[in-house]
Amino acid sequence: MNFGAVTVHALFTGTVHRTLFTHRGSTINRDLND
Q1: Exposed (0-12), middle (13-18) or buried (19+): which is 2, by Cβ within 10 Å?
Q2: What is the C-alpha separation between 12 and 4, in angstroms, rounded?
């Protein structure tokens, strides 16, 4: 593997995890507010 591929993969994975975490947090907040 070259460094560029590892960096892109890390950024992509981080973005996906952040998106999932934010979505899950928003869902929890919505459930608490109902």
Answers
A1: exposed
A2: 12
Q: What is the pTM of this model?
A: 0.47
Residue 12 phi/psi, 5-degree rounding, is -65, -45
3-state secondary structure the chain: CCHHHHHHHHHHHHHHHHHHHHHHHHHHHHHHHC
Q: What distance in Å separates the CA atoms of residue 8 and residue 25, rounded to the nearest whole number?
A: 26
Give the model confidence (pLDDT) of 5-20 as tens digits: 999 999 999 888 888 7
Which two tokens mark 8?
A: 């892109």
